[in-house]
Amino acid sequence: MVLDMIEKILRMDTQERKKDSFIAFLKLGHHLFANVQAISLHEVEALKVMKEAKDAKAEVGRLKDALKENSTEVEHLN
To answer: Domain span at residue 12?
Structure first.
């Protein structure tokens, strides 16, 4: 299989080799661009989730503080 590819390359003229190399380069560039875009989208999603987690943690803190205040008020009533 590799030998067949080498023979094909050797039979090609310079223009064909340049064209094939350029096509391969474009395909790799396209795949690279697509992967960068996918990573960027995942990064945006991760940042949103991290913000939601931070907001939820802050809300839990507020609820804990409110619970402490209510517990203290109930203790004073006893």
So the answer is: 2-77
In this structure, is the dihedral angle defined by the CA atoms of residues 39, 41, 43 and 45, taken in order, positive or negative? negative
* Token pair for 65: 């503080």
Whether the Cβ atoms of residue 22 and residue 30 lie closer than 8 Å to each other: no
Q: How many domains does the chain have?
A: 1
Residue 3's pLDDT band (boundaries 50, 70, 90)?
confident
| Residue that is written with structure tokens 């023979």 in the block | 7
Taking the CA atoms of residue 56, residue 61, residue 67 and residue 73 in that order, the dihedral angle to the nearest 10 degrees is: -150
User: Residues with Cβ < 8 Å from 17, sequence gap 6 or more?
Assistant: 9
* pLDDT given for residue 31 in this prediction: 87
pLDDT band at 78 (very low <50, low <70, confident <90, very high): low
Q: How far apart are CA 13 and CA 21, in angstroms?
A: 12
